[in-house]
Amino acid sequence: MKRSIALMFILMSVTVACIHKHSGTVSPWERVNVNMAALGQINEDIAKGVIGVQQAGTISVQQAAPILNYQELVAKDHAAIENILLAGSTQAASQSTQIQALLNEIQKQGTALIQSGGLGIKNPKSQQTFAQDLQGIVSLASIVLTDYQLAEGK
Amino acid sequence: MASLGIQGVALLIEEILGAISAVGPAGIDLYLKLESLFNLGSDEQANVAAAIKAGLAADTDTIAAIEAWKQQVGL
After folding, report:
1. Residues 35-74 of B with CB under 8 A from A
2. Inter-chain contact A19–B44, Cβ cutoff 8 Å?
3. Average model confidence (pLDDT) for chain A?
4. FRET pair for B32, CA 20 to 30 Å: which of A100, B22, B39, B53?
5. CATH of the domain spanning A2-151
């Protein structure tokens, strides 16, 4: 899992530079949507990892529950944003406040959970804490928010 | 990619390949999913539609996995 998280951070850190197109330039709207999809897929990967670690007996149900509750919130908020984006950039622009509020919620809830101290448990598989695992999701939500604001021309 | 020199790209690829080879099937699966997302075709609408579809599929899978886990542990 350590390598998985390392891979995630590498991918996150280069995603802005590495999205590329066979012909033409990557548009801001494409960048928003691709990074949104990456956020959803990384959240899924981490959630399944946490479930696996709990089922292996490394952490208790009580320790896994707040992490997975947060990840379910991320998936639901993320799906709500995707459904707005599905209607197109014009529709998304009209619901800009809602999109940014959902991304902010992902960041705030994640940061609050990390700061609660309950996630300082070291994951023996990753040799880092679950807080560090979740920081990746918070950081990617921040990247998407920045992408979105750039796409809006702010 | 233009901001990275040839050496930077080589180092990046080496780093990613090193991480992938060590992480096993789950990491490879995630990498392939993300790589397919990051390689865009020429049609913007098709790229956006594919990204949204992938994002929503991930959300559905995540929620289903967590709900199944909750049922299993009695939450």
Report:
1. 37-42, 44, 47-48, 51-52, 54-63, 65-67, 69-70, 73
2. no
3. 83
4. A100
5. 1.20.140
